[in-house]
Design goal:
447 residues, Immunoglobulin-like, 3 domains, seven-stranded mixed sheet, 13 helices, 30% strand
């Protein structure tokens, strides 16, 4: 009997200790990764959206010109008046910069000039910037000559390792005592932006037009030094300057809904995924053509032998997802994509974007675009076929330029010598990259 009682007491004591230890573990291990039950519950509570990688975040310096010439884009809010297109776009943009997940550090500046004509970049809070956009510019503010403003903004951003977003009408107003700046505008622009060339930075130039209310100050002062406008559309521009990967984050994730008018300078891609597509029913090749390697994941070399009555035609799949959105448009590629061949006669066929069908096929899902290549004849036993996208200045640049901006109602959506401004930008990159990308397919004459 004494032994039995001792065993029973021992069991009871052991049970109590287990309960106590279990209770302590549950309370003290609420954040312990070894507690699998709690870990599962935490995982279930996580949002389904995946947060961007740390490298996808950028630091941004945003500069808004607030000269008298910009007032018409930002009329004071009042009942019954709709915001201008400028106010709508800027309000969304600065909200994304301030509150979005893709911008880390952000700084806001109002750009103007002092009494000596020197550029001033006033550091302001987000609320002050927002108030300026939605309520208008109240003070009498002289505009800074364009090259000086660009140089000051870029210099500050480079010092802070930030992407520049510059918003202005880009109407050049030189010092009245130095009208020669009109003649040297292109070289002055290049000089003001030389840091971009020296630091390997790229530029995105975006253009839109907005209703304008109030005094408009043209660059050409005759016959009128200023004009009263009541809703006529005036161009404004958003320039983004920084490292290529950072500029792409801003244009694709921060600005969003970009205007149709886009131009990119300095962009280049040394590696893009591509492969000959030879085994898919969707893009069935014709003629004698097969991959040189039987084991390679990507087929970048083919064997082929066109016959007189059976030329070779095959498709190359490309992943262009990292390019600016406008360069991914099929119409853009149809206009600008080139084929350069050695050792054969070849031409481009259809260019198509990925469809829901191709995205569902494992062997095609990684490609955003498909290009057909036609090869009717070989002129050597081996050679290359290269798909090249050259650097081009979009046609809209010339269409939005004028030598006389005095009457915007008669000649809308034009900016004085905007083509010369872009000439200055383009000069920064003339010796750097001939092509946005060049993808080379090797070939051998099949036995």
């Amino acid at each position: 009997m004494p032994i039995t009682k001792s065993v029973s007491g021992f069991h009871l004591l052991l049970l109590c200790l287990m309960l106590i230890v279990s209770g302590c573990y549950t309370r003290e291990s609420s954040g312990d990764e070894t507690d699998t039950t709690l870990t599962v519950e935490k995982n279930e509570e996580k949002p389904t959206a995946t947060a961007p990688a740390e490298s996808a975040k950028v630091d941004v310096n945003l500069y808004l010109e607030i000269s008298n010439g910009m007032k018409g884009f930002m009329p004071p809010a009042e009942a019954g008046r709709q915001p201008t297109g400028f106010q709508t776009r800027l309000n969304k943009m600065i909200s994304e910069v301030q509150d979005g997940i893709y911008v880390d550090a952000k700084s806001y500046y109002l750009a103007k000039q002092d009494n000596q004509g020197r550029p001033v970049l006033d550091s302001v809070s987000y609320n002050t910037l927002k108030s300026t956009v939605v309520s208008g510019i109240k003070a009498n503010v002289l505009g800074t000559p364009l090259p000086a403003m660009l140089q000051a903004a870029l210099g500050k951003s480079v010092a802070q390792d930030a992407v520049s977003i510059i918003i202005s009408d880009f109407i050049h107003g030189p010092d009245p005592r130095d009208q020669g700046q009109f003649i040297s505008l292109d070289s002055d622009i290049r000089s003001s932006l030389k840091l971009a060339e020296h630091k390997g930075l790229v530029m995105a130039v975006l253009a839109d037009a907005s209703a304008f209310y109030g005094s408009y100050y043209p660059a050409v002062k005759k016959p009128a030094a200023s004009r009263k406008l009541d809703g006529e559309e005036i161009p404004y521009y958003i320039w983004v300057i920084g490292r290529q990967q950072d500029v792409q984050v801003v244009t694709s994730k921060v600005l969003r809904n970009l205007p149709a008018q886009q131009a990119y300078f300095g962009f280049g891609y040394t590696t893009l995924p591509y492969s000959a597509v030879l085994k898919s029913k969707q893009f069935r090749p014709s003629g004698v053509v097969y991959c040189t390697s039987r084991t390679a994941e990507a087929c970048t070399s083919v064997n082929m032998q066109p016959q007189k009555d059976e030329p070779v035609a095959f498709t190359i799949g490309m992943d262009l997802s990292t390019l600016p959105a406008s360069m991914q448009e099929v119409k853009y590629l149809e206009r600008h994509l080139k084929l350069a061949a050695t050792g054969c006669r070849a031409s481009l066929g259809d260019i198509t974007a990925a469809s829901e069908d191709t995205k569902a096929m494992p062997d095609l899902a990684s490609f955003t675009h498909f290009v057909q290549v036609n090869v009717p004849q070989l002129t050597a036993s081996k050679g290359t076929i290269a798909l090249q996208l050259p650097q081009v200045v979009p046609a809209w640049i010339g269409n939005w330029s004028t030598e006389n901006d005095n009457d915007p109602a008669a000649d809308p959506k034009k900016t004085y010598q905007f083509n010369k401004i872009i000439d200055g930008v383009q000069a920064l990159y003339r010796d750097q990259r001939k092509h946005v990308f060049s993808l080379t397919m090797d070939f051998n004459k099949a036995d």
